[in-house]
Amino acid sequence: QVRLVESGGGLVQPGGSLRLSCSVPQSIFSRHNIMGWYRQAPGKERELVASFTSGGGTNYADSVKGRFTISRDTFTNTLYLQMNSLKPEDTAVYYCNVQNSGSVNWGQGTRVTVSL
User: Fold this and answer.
1) Beta pairing partners, 36
2) What pLDDT, in 10s, does the model give residues 92-106?
3) DSSP per residue over 32-87, as a string?
4) Helix, strand, coil % (nearest 5) of the chain?
């Protein structure tokens, strides 16, 4: 496994925005790999938020459709998650994930708190 490094979390008020970043080693940064963001709220299971499929398409959880956008920069090997119109229920630790040749790689997580 390789190390993914997330950043960009923090405290934001409801209705606000944040952009999460994930630095991915070049060795596994490929359009053919599944790349995505997961989150885990206190007391809940980790869930998929958004991802790129191996074919280059995107998937979003119903709860974030229209508010979150996943993107990636092939020059800097960075995966992003733009989060708009944040709600208190978006509060969680967000994890970057890359699946490569049968291996699953995770970052350490970045905490997002949506509160007044």
Assistant:
1) 51, 97
2) 999 999 998 888 999
3) TSEEEEEEE-TTS--EEEEEE-TTS-EEE-TTTTTTEEEEEETTTTEEEEEE-S--
4) 5, 50, 45
